[in-house]
Design brief:
The structure is a single chain. By secondary structure, the protein is α/β, with parallel strands linked by helices. The protein contains 16 helices and 29 strands. The strands form 6 sheets. A 9-stranded mixed sheet has the order 1-2-7-8-9-11-10-5-6, sandwiched between helices. A hairpin with a 5-residue loop joins strand 3 and strand 4 (52-54). Helix 10 runs antiparallel to helix 11. The chain starts with 9 loop residues before the first strand and ends in an 8-residue tail after the last helix. The relative contact order is 0.11.
Length: 534
């Protein structure tokens, strides 16, 4: 077992000649070593079934504590609204200097990895972490270089993540003692105060979201898979909408479950692993993902172990946001190289807790841009303190905290890719039907899979569609394996007046949310908005 004393102290170089002095560096440690070190450092325990299980001081991301350094370039190109908050370069430099001093003599873990499976568009990253478990997470989630690539590895970006280092807001200019600061000029991200490992990957995801559009590449918060005929499908959606579950289809090969780029030749995964939400995961409905929660090498975040040391996926006492981070090759049915051709279908997933959106509808190009910029899903009562009825969540581009540019820029680029490819675009509601949350019921995953399979197979090409009056959505009138009364949400409600009232309510919410984007999109997009007065 390695210990700090067994690793000679050395000065470790970051970007721009910056140095951590006398550090004990674990360079590119493997799974066995990281298990041993995480357990030795008290970061987690090995579950009886094999995974490394950890508990974190924060059980989710801290988007309000993420800042972007404002310089001559970012001032013009970043959309300084929502989650994109500027911070002065001097604030970054002062905090970095403190962190380097704090890290002197410490035991640190370094992974040299790529973000992106396409060599033409990937970035080389040096990920420096204080926690062994973070290093295992990075080992699982990023693309590991080959032995030959590692010989001449030159990092373009550096991430320095030291959770035990906390900022002093009054002195350091941060919002709280937690911070994630992105500096495009220095090509660095520094983070402190949070043990949640997802910050490591989402930080770099945000970097790619900023860099790639300038190269004509569409960065996407989506999963992707490919059929036997090479037809690629994309699945956009926020947490809890089924993005990971629906893309892990046994009849199709998984390209990736969360982050991709769309180039002129096809799509590529940003990652080398998957980061699945596992609360109440069902072994029968989702066998492939369920198995990863039992595997050696997997990291389980905030999953409770029962008395026998076995993960209890139904226990949400620590958080509803329990997570499994595993290498993509733990899924048997994967696409070699995690790349695919030009997409033929694009699916937007939403979990509508109001129960008024159809289980599947076809989108026009203008509706696609509108729904993409809106990024709608809904929180259900009980998921957050104070949430007592369905609450809309609008997250631009289905990933607002990670999108540095104006939403309209991403929407136009996606529209261009869809137009050039001829891809069909679908909106799928995996939420409630027959009534809102508490009155209706959750959409059957069996029906959802049947609807998506019908869309991807071309079965719906010759089917009659009927337009919904409130949201102007085209709804198929028949789909194999799905009862006709399920297809139109109004038919599924016993109280039609209650449906109309709820649909109007949600339509007004859509329109109110979109007001801040109207100046940045074409009139045809705003004309496609829902109509609460229908």
């Amino acid at each position: 077992m390695t210990t700090p004393d067994s690793i000679p102290a050395q000065d470790f170089t970051l970007n721009d000649g910056l140095t951590i002095k006398n550090a004990h560096i674990h360079l590119n440690p493997g799974v066995d070593e990281l298990y041993n070190d995480a357990i030795r450092l008290g970061e987690g325990v090995k579950a009886a079934t094999g995974p490394l299980t950890v508990r974190t001081n924060k059980t989710g991301r801290s988007p309000k504590d993420r800042f972007i350094v404002e310089d001559a370039e970012t001032k013009e190109n970043v959309w300084w609204e929502g989650f994109n908050v500027p911070i002065a370069a001097s604030v970054f430099d002062n905090l970095l200097e403190k962190m380097l001093k704090y890290a002197e003599g410490k035991e640190l873990f370094v992974q040299q990895v790529f973000a992106g499976t396409d060599p033409a568009h990937r970035i080389a990253c040096q990920m420096i972490t204080e926690m062994a478990y973070h290093s295992l997470f990075i080992h699982n989630m990023f693309v590991r270089p080959s032995a030959e690539e590692r010989k001449n590895f030159q990092a373009e970006w550096t991430v320095l993540n030291i959770p035990s280092f906390k900022a002093d807001p009054a002195v350091d200019g941060t919002r709280t003692d937690t911070f994630i600061l992105v500096n495009f000029g220095k090509k660095m991200i520094i983070a402190g105060g949070t043990q949640y490992a997802g910050e490591n990957k989402k930080g770099i995801f945000g970097v790619l979201n900023y860099l790639l559009p300038a190269k004509g590449v569409m960065p996407m918060h989506c999963s992707a898979n490919v059929g036997e005929d090479g037809d690629v499908a994309l699945f956009f959606g926020l947490s809890g909408t089924g993005k990971t579950t629906l893309s892990a289809d046994p009849s199709r090969k998984l390209i990736g479950d969360d982050e991709h780029g769309w180039t002129d030749t096809g799509v590529f995964n940003f990652e080398g692993g998957c980061y699945a939400k596992v609360i109440n995961l069902n072994a029968e409905a989702e066998p492939a993902i369920y198995q990863t929660t039992r595997n050696y090498g997997t990291v389980l975040e905030n999953v409770v172990l029962d008395a026998s040391g076995t993960p209890d996926l139904n226990d949400g006492s620590l958080t509803e946001n329990t997570r499994s981070a595993y290498p993509i090759d733990q899924i048997a049915n994967i696409q070699p190289g995690s790349v695919g051709g030009i997409p033929k279908n694009v699916v937007f997933l939403t979990a509508d807790a109001f129960g008024v959106l159809p289980p599947l509808s076809r989108l026009t190009p203008e509706q696609m841009m509108y729904q993409f910029i809106s990024g709608f899903t809904a929180k259900i009562p009980g998921t957050e303190q104070g949430v007592t009825e369905p609450t809309p969540t609008f997250s631009t581009c289905f990933g607002a905290p990670f999108m540095p540019r104006h939403p309209g820029e991403y929407a136009r680029l996606l529209a261009q890719k869809v137009k050039e490819s001829g891809a069909k675009v679908w909106l799928v509601n995996t939420g409630w039907t027959g009534g809102k949350y508490g009155e209706g019921h959750r959409m059957s995953i069996k029906h959802t899979r049947a609807l998506i399979n019908a869309a991807l197979s071309g079965e719906l090409d010759d089917v009659e569609f009927k337009r919904d009056p409130f949201f102007h959505l085209d709804i198929p009138t028949q789909v194999s394996g799905v009862p006709s009364e399920v297809l139109n949400p109004r038919d599924a409600w016993a109280d039609k007046d209650a449906y109309d009232e709820t649909a109007r309510k949600l339509a007004r919410m859509f329109r109110e949310n979109f007001k801040r984007f109207e100046s940045g999109v074409d009139q045809a997009v705003t004309d496609s908005m829902p109509n609460p007065d229908a």
